[in-house]
Amino acid sequence: MAVAAPGQLNLDESPAWGSRSVDCFEKLEQIGEGTYGQVFMAKEIRTGEIVALKKIRMDNERERFPITAIREIKILKKLHHDNVIKLKEIVTSPGPERDDHGKIDGNKYKGSIYMVFEYMDHDLTGLSDRPGMRFTVPQIKCYMRQLLTGLHYCHVNQVLHRDIKGSNLLIDNEGNLKLADFGLARSFSNDHNGNLTNRVITTDEVNWPGVSKIPWYNNFKPSRPMKRRVRETYKHFDRHALELLERMLTLDPSQRISAKDALDAEYFWTDPLPCDPKSLPKYESSHEFQTKKKRQQPVNMKKPQRRLQTSIHDNIAPSHSTVWTKRRDDSD
């Protein structure tokens, strides 16, 4: 099997990928945009299946395939889980350059490349931003359980996501939550002792004499050590929710709770229990890109409804809370 050099995409690793044109799909509407490119809701013309097309931005890559896209493709090819977004295929627009054997050379590609994903109706940010949206405790636990299950699967398969946020947590109208956007993800090995984040090198005052004399130095220097205030700030939270939150926000990675252990936390095993995903309400498509666009529109005659704050501690309706009846098997 050929291996792509850094900055290259070897479509030969998956012969079917890259063999179809984006013309096989009809773009319906844009649902996302970022430094990576644009995301469109689209329909496969032959089957009518709704998918998400992620157009990879090539503007600043000096004719090389973006390294973040290469990482995402390679990682998603090896991850197959209900709580991880599925990469279905790669398609191209007219303009490829081919090698002597007629195969597409990802390093000399002049057209556009799209990643084809399964379509998800919402992302968590867009869904949370809906006017009047308020999650119940069983719903919050349902989403959190799926998030941690997906993370645990990634860690077992030696993948760090490194970009967990609401817009990267996709949800469909069946209540399924999936991790998405693996552009910043990294693979690791158990014997890996190196850093997995960018290195920032600085110095201390001993090695930088006179630093305290620099104008504004003392203005930016904390006057005293910052006190941990999680319990004080969120004292109104349920006790088990607060305990789990504190353990997940522990600064020292060696002391921080793992995704696997978090799934066995008391929070998930006390009433109200996580609801069944299929019992979650269905909503009109809600993505951060769309809700942000609506907020930026000029104010119309009718004022938008004020957003209600979602709170993890509000126990509004403990219905559909009989999904979990026994703890996870310790052997998992």
Automatic annotation (TrEMBL):
ATP binds at residue 54. One of its GO terms (biological process) is positive regulation of transcription elongation by RNA polymerase II. GO terms for molecular function: ATP binding; RNA polymerase II CTD heptapeptide repeat kinase activity. Residues 280-291 have a biased composition (Basic and acidic residues). Residues 25-268 form the Protein kinase domain. This is Protein kinase domain-containing protein. GO terms for cellular component: cyclin-dependent protein kinase holoenzyme complex; nucleus.
